[in-house]
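> example.struct
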């Protein structure tokens, strides 16, 4: 009875947002200091580790909101990133917790030479081990800016195209430009002006989607490739702004798509003209998400063409903006998808070899939320003489419902028996369903007590044996459960049906369940001898569907 009461009291602190965290930490530190005055025991090392964690946390709490470090600005405020998933849609789930922001700069005065790739590096250190957000600012002068391919390479080798032949014949349009995923200006549709720097742009490929979760410490490289003769420039300086923390991007898992096709067609592509191939959809989805486009277009000298797709509402997205160089027929069977690893701006085309899969110049996500029904158009503009072609087919593919709308984040602790409690989920996270979505913890110490709880915001801070992954306020999902399994083994488990819990607890935190709501789940398991006498699981973030 005493053991159960102690566990319940300890667990209650997880759901007690009324106490100031700093005061709680100070009280716990005082208890630990008192215990360390006694003769050494097997618990001494554990207590010392916990003391160090508390001291670090108290130091962080005392830090000012913005403090200048050795190589950057540290702003240690936890900020919940918005979940970009539309209820019922099939976009990736994007959320996380931002930690500190660091700024690193270099001023190389590097000459950008014709038909050459030049590069400069910045070494990042002292940043947390996981990337949350990356922004890049460059100051580069160059005449005829479309000569340049500008790329960022992370310490892990990930290449992110920032600008792929953009800017046209304009000069110096990147002489003070911020590349930021949150910019309202997609680079593919931005209207450049000669000798006017674009203040901020959304890059060719997403920085955060490409780099989230990587260790940012190490050597970053900015590459600038000049692809033509007659125009040169200088990279004066560039800046990396990196926010650590944890970021979670859960890719959608699609069912069989619904495809609408023109079927075989024959629309002649005429020199110095724009032609269109219409496709009328009836019975398509009322809310678009995750659209992909398939085309069969033949043409000699492919770079003559600007290929675009236009929705019934008039939204236009570039598929290929003068890509393919002098090659022939490279789009005669190409699927354009935002999930393709082949960024069109850096793709190596081969004559008469079809590029099967490409990430387009524009953002197909601009169609998300629109009604698919109505007349679409594939638009092809040929801006030169001497080479022609034909639109042979045009398909639109709309994914079925998502098969995954949740994912794990944060780091599980390890119990004294070596068990690592891990969360998983089964079923559909439907806000309207009466039951069927079950949160489970496996790999749990056997013959123990444990509980599952949830909250409405994530965090990540050392706590007990592991990390506290859910910010206050937190809600216990019923009473402590017996894990079952074998004493000393890792075969115990915990589980709760979310919808059943919601029905039985209408006054609980965040009830009633609603579509689009994101909840965060974690488990705590009794572990006598560990800090706080418990071990923490990893966590799951769940976005509810209708």
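> example.seq
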């Amino acid at each position: 009875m005493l053991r159960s009461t102690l566990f319940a009291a300890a667990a209650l602190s997880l759901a007690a947002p009324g106490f100031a965290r700093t005061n709680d930490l100070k009280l716990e530190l005082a208890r630990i200091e008192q215990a360390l005055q006694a003769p050494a025991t097997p618990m001494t090392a554990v207590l010392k580790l916990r003391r160090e964690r508390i001291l670090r946390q108290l130091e962080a709490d005392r830090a000012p909101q913005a403090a200048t470090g050795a190589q950057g600005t540290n702003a240690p405020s936890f900020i919940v990133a918005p979940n970009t998933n539309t209820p019922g849609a099939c976009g990736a789930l994007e959320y996380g917790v931002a930690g500190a922001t660091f700024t690193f700069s270099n001023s190389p005065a590097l000459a950008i030479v014709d038909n050459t790739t030049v590069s400069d590096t910045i070494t990042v250190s002292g940043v947390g081990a996981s990337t949350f957000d990356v922004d890049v600012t460059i100051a580069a002068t160059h005449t005829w800016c479309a000569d340049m391919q500008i790329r960022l390479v992370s310490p892990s080798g990930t290449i992110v195209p920032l600008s792929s032949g953009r800017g046209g014949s304009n000069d110096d349009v990147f002489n003070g430009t911020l590349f930021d995923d949150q910019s309202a200006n997609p680079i593919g549709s931005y209207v450049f002006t000669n000798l006017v720097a674009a203040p901020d742009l959304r890059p060719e490929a997403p920085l955060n989607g490409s780099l989230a979760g990587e260790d940012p410490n190490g050597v970053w490289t900015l590459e600038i490739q000049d692809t033509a003769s007659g125009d040169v420039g200088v990279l004066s300086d560039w800046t990396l702004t990196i926010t650590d923390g944890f970021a979670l991007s859960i890719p959608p898992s699609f069912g069989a798509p619904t495809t609408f096709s023109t079927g075989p067609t024959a629309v002649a592509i005429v020199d110095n003209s724009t032609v269109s191939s219409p496709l009328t959809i009836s019975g398509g989805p009322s809310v678009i998400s995750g659209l992909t486009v398939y085309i069969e277009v033949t043409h000699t000298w492919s770079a003559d063409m600007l290929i675009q797709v236009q929705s019934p509402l008039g939204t236009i997205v570039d598929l290929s903006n003068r890509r393919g160089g002098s090659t022939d027929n490279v789009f005669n069977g190409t699927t354009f998808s935002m999930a393709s690893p082949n960024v069109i701006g850096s793709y190596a085309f081969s004559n008469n070899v079809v590029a099967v899969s490409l990430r387009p110049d524009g953002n197909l996500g601009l169609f998300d939320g629109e009604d698919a029904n109505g007349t679409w158009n594939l638009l092809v503009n040929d801006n030169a003489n001497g080479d022609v072609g034909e639109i042979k087919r045009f398909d639109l593919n709309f994914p079925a419902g998502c098969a995954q709308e949740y994912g794990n984040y944060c780091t599980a602790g390890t119990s004294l028996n070596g068990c690592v409690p891990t969360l998983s989920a089964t079923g559909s996270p439907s806000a309207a369903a009466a039951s069927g979505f079950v949160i489970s913890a496996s790999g749990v110490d056997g013959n123990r007590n444990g509980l599952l709880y949830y909250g409405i915001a994530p965090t990540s801070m050392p706590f007990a044996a592991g990390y506290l992954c859910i910010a206050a306020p937190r809600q216990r999902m019923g009473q402590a459960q017996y894990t079952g399994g074998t004493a000393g083994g890792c075969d115990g488990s915990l589980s709760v049906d979310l919808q059943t819990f919601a029905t039985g607890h209408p006054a609980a935190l965040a009830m009633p369940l609603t579509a689009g709501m994101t909840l965060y789940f974690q488990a705590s398991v009794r572990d006598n001898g560990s800090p706080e006498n418990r071990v923490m699981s990893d966590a799951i973030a769940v976005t509810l569907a209708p």
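> remarks
The chain has five helices and 34 strands.
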